[in-house]
Design goal:
Strand order of the largest sheet: 4-10-9-8-7-5-6
Shape: globular
Number of strands: 13
Number of helices: 12
Bound molecules: pyridoxal-5'-phosphate
Helix content: 25-40%
Length: 407
C-alpha cells in the first residue's frame, strides 16, 4: 500500500476510496486472484466475496467458459477499426432477449452508457433538461452532479439536470408542470439503490407515472440497469418491475468482469441514436463481447438467476434472524440478489464499518455502505459459512464485543 500510495492517488483509485480508507490490517487492499465466488488477497487469505467486482462478477471469477471465449477472440486480435462479427452476434442476442430492445450500441463503462442515453434522448427531443432521482448513482460524468453531487464537477455541468424524490409521482408531475417543454428524459434505476442508504423498490404508482408523464410531454424514459442488470430478470430489470423504457443501459454483469457496456433502445429512438456524435477507441474491442455472449448464454443454461435468488433469500433471511438474536436492529432492503444491509441509528455507517471489518476478519467480504451482490457461483455452503461469520461479527457489535481473530 505504501508503494501504491506513492504512485496512485489514495493508493487505490476510484469507488470513493474503498477500501483505501481502511487502516492496514482491517480490510484487504489488494487481490491476488479470484475463482468462483472466492477471492484471495495478496497475503494469501481466502474470502467469500459479496462485492463481486461491484456487480461485474455474476458467473464466478475466472469462469472457464466465459474467459475461454474472450481468450479465443483475443487470440485472433481484439480491437480493430472495423468491428468483429461477434459484436453483431451479441447485439442480435441482446435484441432477442431484452424486452423492448431493437438495437444495441456498445461502449466500455456504465458512465459511457448513461451519458450516451442522455445524448440520444436530447437528440430525439431536441431538448436539454434531464430529470433524475435524488441520490441515484449513474456514474461520475458532469451531468450526474444533478442527482449525486461530487467534488471536481462544476455546478454548470448539471445546470439542466433536476432531481426528484424516488417513488414520488407528485414530484415528477411537478417538475414536468414547471418545465415539461424542456425535459428530454427521465433517468431512473429499476429500483432505488443509493449509497449509502436503504434500497427501495418502485411503487406501482411511480412505474405508471413515469411512462404516463414522459409520454404526455414527449420525453424519453431511460432505465439505468448498469448495476441490477441480469440479477433480477434476464429480459432486463425493467421487465421485472413492469417499467417500459425507451432506452436501457447495461454494463457490470454484462460480460462477467470483462469491460463492456451498452445502450439498447426501441425503434422510436433509433434515428436519434444514429444522429449523435459519440465515439470511443476501445468500444469495438471484441474479446469482452465474446465474453458477454458466453456469459449471457451460461446464465440460463446453468439456471443462474434461480441460484442467485434462492441463495440471496437464504442469506437475507439468515441475517435478519441473526440480527434479532443479537438485538442488532439491522435491516435488509432491496432484491435478495443484491441486498443492502443497514443498521437503524447508524447515521455515519460506523457500525456497518465495524461489521464489514469483523466479517473480513472471519473470511467474508461485504461492503459497509453499498449493496452486496450474490452471484451464480456462490454455493449453499458459502452462505452458511458467511452466516457463521455474521453471527460472530454481530456479536462484536454489542457494547464491549470484539471480533474473534480470523480462524
Ligand atoms: C446504476 C449505475 N449506473 C452507472 C454506473 C457507472 O458505471 P461505471 O462505474 O462502469 O462507469 C454505476 C456504477 O456503479 C451504477 O451503479
Amino acid at each position: 500500500m505504501e508503494r501504491a500510495r506513492a504512485v496512485i492517488p489514495h493508493g487505490i483509485w476510484g469507488h470513493n476510496r474503498f477500501p483505501a480508507s481502511y487502516t492496514p490490517g482491517e480490510y484487504p487492499y489488494f487481490t491476488e486472484r479470484g475463482e468462483g465466488a472466492h477471492v484471495w488477497d495478496v497475503d494469501g487469505n481466502r474470502y467469500i466475496d459479496y462485492l463481486c467486482a461491484f456487480g461485474a462478477m455474476i458467473n464466478g471469477y475466472a469462469n472457464p467458459v466465459v474467459d475461454e471465449a474472450a481468450r479465443a477472440q483475443a487470440a485472433r486480435g481484439d480491437c480493430f477499426a472495423q468491428p468483429a462479427a461477434v459484436g453483431v452476434e451479441l447485439a442480435e442476442y441482446l435484441c432477442s432477449k431484452i424486452l423492448g430492445a431493437e438495437w444495441c450500441a456498445f461502449s466500455k463503462s456504465g458512465s459511457d452508457a448513461t451519458w450516451t442515453a442522455v445524448m440520444i434522448a436530447r437528440a430525439f427531443t431536441r431538448r436539454s433538461d434531464v430529470v433524475c432521482v435524488r441520490g441515484a448513482f449513474h456514474g461520475s460524468h458532469g451531468w450526474c452532479n444533478g442527482c449525486n453531487p461530487g467534488e471536481g464537477r462544476a455546478r454548470e455541468d448539471a445546470h439542466a439536470v433536476h432531481a426528484v424524490e424516488w417513488n414520488d409521482a407528485n414530484d415528477l408531475e411537478r417538475i414536468f408542470q414547471e418545465r415539461g417543454d424542456r425535459i428530454a428524459c427521465v433517468v431512473t434505476t429499476p429500483f432505488h439503490h443509493p449509497i449509502p442508504g436503504r434500497a427501495a423498490l418502485p411503487s406501482a404508482d411511480f412505474v405508471r407515472a413515469i411512462r404516463e408523464v414522459t409520454d404526455r410531454h414527449g420525453a424519453i424514459h431511460v432505465v439505468d440497469d448498469v448495476r441490477a442488470g441480469f440479477r433480477l430478470d434476464l429480459r432486463g430489470s425493467h421487465a421485472y418491475f413492469g417499467l417500459e423504457p425507451d432506452l436501457i443501459c447495461f454494463s457490470k454483469a454484462l460480460a462477467n468482469t470483462h469491460p463492456l457496456a451498452c445502450v439498447v433502445g426501441t425503434d422510436k429512438v433509433r434515428r436519434a441514436a444514429e444522429s449523435i456524435f459519440t465515439s470511443g477507441t476501445f468500444w469495438k474491442s471484441a474479446a469482452p463481447m465474446a465474453a458477454a455472449l458466453a456469459n449471457l448464454e451460461f446464465l440460463p443454461e446453468n439456471d443462474g438467476l434461480r441460484t442467485m435468488m434462492s441463495l440471496g433469500q437464504r442469506l437475507v433471511d439468515g441475517l435478519v434472524r441473526l440480527g434479532q438474536r443479537h438485538s442488532v436492529p439491522l435491516e435488509m432492503t432491496g432484491p435478495v440478489t443484491m441486498p443492502t444491509m443497514t443498521i437503524a441509528g447508524d447515521v455515519d455507517q460506523a457500525q456497518m464499518r465495524r461489521f464489514a471489518v469483523a466479517m473480513a476478519e472471519q473470511g467474508s467480504l461485504v461492503h459497509p455502505s453499498h449493496n452486496w451482490f450474490v452471484s451464480a457461483a456462490h454455493r449453499p455452503a458459502d452462505i452458511e459459512q458467511t452466516l457463521g461469520h455474521a453471527d460472530v461479527a454481530l456479536a462484536s457489535l454489542a457494547p464491549g464485543g470484539a471480533a474473534r481473530a480470523r480462524p
